[in-house]
Amino acid sequence: MENEANKNSVSLPQIQFSLSAPEGKEFLLAAGGRPPEKTWLRRAAEHRTLWAIDRGLESFFAAGLVPEQLIGDGDSASPEAWKKALSICIPVERFPSEKDYTDTDLALKKIKADNPSAFIILTGGFGGRFDHAFTTMYSLLSSGLSGCLADEKECLILLNGSSSVEAHCLKRPKAVSLLPLSPMVRGVSFSGVRWPLDNTSISQDRTLTVSNRLADDSDGCRLSFSEGSLGLYFVWDEASL
């Protein structure tokens, strides 16, 4: 039986999940990709610490939310948004645009230093340039923090090493996929879905774990694996991606 002290439960408007990670302070970071829907963002923001990463500031302001921290190089948020942030005394860390780390990297490093058990919900990570989405995903995966990328359309839970997660969908997803984020992932068991797995190895050069779906009698799924890095992906709205 898993130690409940080493499980973290996370609730978003369309999904709830618990994973094998120590419970820690939850941060909601808004980045500069596809803006989340305002109502979704307001609900996701409840009881969480809000950080804006450059243009993510505009998503918070559009939803009537004020972040506790703004970090970035100022190359994507409007000058008006930055001016407003300064006028209402939001703490700001501004960096030069020519630097070795992305704004997301810098935000994650700062959170990790002060809150090593934090759980990160990163919105505004999907959409826009593929290179931005790709590096955002791997920045979070390699940060040493637990977390997910999420908005009202998609959710990607990132898992490292020997891990397990149990998800309960409040809204039925169109598809559920397992995305190997290391060359090989071993000991994969996946239940509650149309095509389950039992202690299987999966690799990045195979596509057998894409576009699964929940079983007809299931409103959630359970995933565990023993080695590697893996993303558990849900999509609710394909038409507007």
From TrEMBL:
Protein name per its UniProtKB record: Thiamine diphosphokinase
EC number annotated for this UniProt entry: 2.7.6.2
Keyword hit for DNA repair: no
Keywords noted in UniProt: ATP-binding, Kinase, Nucleotide-binding, Transferase
Enzyme class at the top of the EC tree: transferase
InterPro entries reported for this sequence: Thi_PPkinase (IPR006282), Thiamin_PyroPKinase_B1-bd (IPR007373), TPK (IPR053149), TPK_B1-bd_sf (IPR036371), TPK_catalytic (IPR007371), TPK_catalytic_sf (IPR036759)
Pfam family, one: TPK_B1_binding
A single MF term (Gene Ontology): thiamine binding
Protease found in the keyword field: no
